[in-house]
Design goal:
It comes from Amycolatopsis cihanbeyliensis. With about 180 residues, the protein is mainly alpha-helical. Helices cover about 50% and strands about 10% of the residues. It has one domain. Strand 2 and strand 3 form a beta hairpin. The chain is globular, with a radius of gyration of 17 Å. The two termini are about 20 Å apart.
Length: about 180
């Protein structure tokens, strides 16, 4: 798999993300680092998670795609739950095949004052995105978290793969918008 690309509608996005999660063979409880590791292996490029003291107020996370690696910088100075959501949002950009935002120039100069804006732009290899892509990345993060929460609450762990669990899982198919 490479990036999935932008989806036409929310139902297609939900189905595509859930299919990817199934393909990555993730189980409850969700471990965001395992998700990133498996996504990285599937894409044949590492994803490095980097806690960083991002300036506040400002962005909470950034996806920086270099020629060989995806770097996800996330706010170091926040709760673990918020950090997880920030990472999932940035993963949403990766899964959706989004690019960077020209408005990031100020952020990049604050984070990397020793690099010229042209160097940063070349390193990012991104096309630019706006509010629609931000909403899409947020929806991907939400779908992943909903999926993981439902699996955890229903206890769909590999050691609980009984006939009753399979029937219950079948009740939450794509028509219901979950599994």
């Amino acid at each position: 798999m490479t990036e999935r690309g932008s989806w036409r509608n929310e139902l297609q996005l939900r189905r595509g993300v859930k299919q990817l999660l199934r393909e990555l063979d993730l189980a409850a409880p969700l471990d965001v680092r395992v998700l990133c590791d498996r996504l990285a292996r599937r894409r044949n490029r590492p994803i490095k998670l980097m806690p960083y003291p991002l300036p506040a107020p400002g962005v909470f996370g950034l996806w920086i795609a270099t020629a060989s690696t995806d770097h996800i910088l996330y706010q170091r100075d926040t709760t673990a739950a918020h950090q997880e959501h920030i990472i999932l949002h940035e993963v949403g950009h990766i899964i959706s095949g989004h690019g960077g935002d020209e408005n990031d120039r100020e952020v990049w100069s604050q984070l990397f004052p020793d690099l010229s804006p042209d160097s940063v732009r070349r390193a990012l290899r991104r096309d630019g995105y706006g509010p629609a892509f931000e909403r899409e990345a947020e929806m991907v993060a939400t779908v992943i978290k909903e999926w993981a929460t439902l699996l955890e609450r229903l206890d769909f762990t590999p050691d609980r793969d009984t006939e009753a669990a399979r029937r219950l899982r079948g009740a939450f198919d794509d028509h219901q918008g979950w599994l």
